[in-house]
Amino acid sequence: MSESTSAEKEAPLDEQDRVPCGSCYAPLPKSSSSRCGKCRKRHYCNRECQVEDWKLGRHKTWCGKAGEVGYDFQVVDIAGKGKGVIALRGFAKAERVMYERRILSCRTLSGIRPIAKSFKKLSEAEKNAILDLFPSEADLFKKFSTNSMSCGEEDELGMDSGLFVTMSRLNHSCLSNTNHWYEPYLKSKVLFACRDIAEGEELTIAYSSEPSNKQYLLSHYGFVCTCEACSNPEIAAKVKEIKRLDNEILILGMQMNSDMAIRAGKRLLKLYDELHWPTQSYVRTCYDIFQVAIMKRATLKEGLHYMQLGLAMEQKQYEGLNEPERLGSIAKYASYLKHPESHRNYLIAR
Question: Where is each MYND-type domain found (predicted)?
Answer without folding.
Answer: 21-63
